[in-house]
Design a protein that fits this description.
This protein has helices at residues 16-27, 63-74, 127-130, 155-165, 184-192, 286-307, and strands spanning 5-12, 32-36, 81-83, 87-91, 96-99, 102-111, 115-117, 132-133, 147-151, 170-175, 196-200, 203-209, 213-220, 225-230, 233-236, 240-242, 272-274. By secondary structure, it is α/β, with parallel strands linked by helices. Helix 1 packs across helix 6 and helix 4 (155-165) packs parallel to helix 5.
């Protein structure tokens, strides 16, 4: 193993939360390094096909446009950003993480590893020539005149169902929970739209078709009842999974394995902070991640000052 490195702060993850934390720590003269597993900073921004309008610094045509701005903003960090450095091990109590064959020690660690999308084994993204998709936003009119099944009960799924209802022959909103988990105002709109059939307590078991999608088989786990529905499109919008596997057993996690923090974004392990989508109960928005990144820097400064 190469020589260990020691820093004031090690930020794990270079998405909006991690980049924001690193910039603020740099600005207050803390020796900070960013470990990012991908080839560039930006995290999930590159996956956003729609416009981003909730960042007060401006409007961006899509996620990659915002990612480019983030790249420019973080250029000041220079060689303090180590891309291609996925964290593969950690001892949070001892204050170090392992990446690129080295150990990085720090007085404070920031976990900003974000989340990854779940997928349905029976319905891989892009199947049946794209009739199964996890990213309908980039082509919302492609299912006009078709029977459509939307999987998920959160904001994204319900908003897609409302959008598709305007042009699709029918929309079935399938989710395994007893009730929709989207914002109350969105749920009310779904309830008032007679073009949308809300199927709670159901899951996708299998999909069938020849050249294109033709049928989706649903199952109700509580009763084992099955139902076949005609479908020319299947849009999957199920919850993402926090990226916390490498830290499992070292921090308090909730049932979704997101990191539990206090009001200062301090985890159950002293000196370890978390920000962004990886935080339990976090509001999954780019603007939230930016704000939490700055807040962690303030909390880190207080932590390091208390240790002196």
């Amino acid at each position: 193993m190469q020589t260990d490195q020691h820093h004031d702060v090690v930020v794990i993850g270079g998405g909006p939360a991690g980049a924001s934390a690193a910039l603020e720590c740099f600005d207050i003269n803390l020796d900070t390094i960013v470990l990012e597993g991908r080839s560039m900073l930006g995290g999930q921004l590159g996956e956003i096909p729609n416009s981003v309008r909730n960042v007060a610094a401006g409007q961006f045509k899509d996620g990659p446009a915002l990612q480019a701005e983030l790249q420019r903003a973080t250029a000041i960090l220079g060689d303090r950003v180590l891309t291609g450095h996925e964290v593969t091990g950690a001892n949070l109590r001892a204050g170090w993480v392992k990446a690129g064959g080295r150990r990085f020690h720090a007085g404070a660690l920031v976990i900003a590893t974000g989340s990854v999308p779940q997928s349905l084994p029976a319905a891989p993204d892009g199947a049946f020539g794209g009739d199964v998709t996890y990213h309908v936003e980039s082509r919302p009119d492609c299912f006009s005149g078709r029977d459509v099944v939307v999987v998920g009960g959160g904001d994204s799924a319900t908003l897609d169902a409302l959008e598709l209802a305007g042009t699709a022959s029918s929309v079935k909103l399938v989710h395994r929970s007893e009730k929709l988990t989207a914002r109350p105002d969105i749920v009310e709109r779904v309830r008032q739209d007679r073009r949308i059939e809300d199927l709670s307590g159901w899951e996708v078991e299998s999909v069938y078709g020849t050249e294109g999608l033709e049928e989706v088989v649903l199952v109700q786990p509580s009763t084992s009842e099955r139902r076949k529905v005609a479908a020319g499109g299947l849009i999957v919008k199920i919850s993402r999974v926090p990226t916390t596997a490498v830290f499992r057993g070292q921090l308090e996690l909730d049932r979704r394995e997101a990191i539990v923090v206090d009001g200062a974004l301090q985890t159950s392990q002293p000196g370890v902070f978390a920000a962004g989508d990886v935080v339990a109960g976090s509001y999954w928005r780019v603007a939230t991640a930016f704000g939490q990144g700055v807040l962690t820097a303030r909390s880190i400064l207080r932590h390091l000052e208390a240790m002196q």
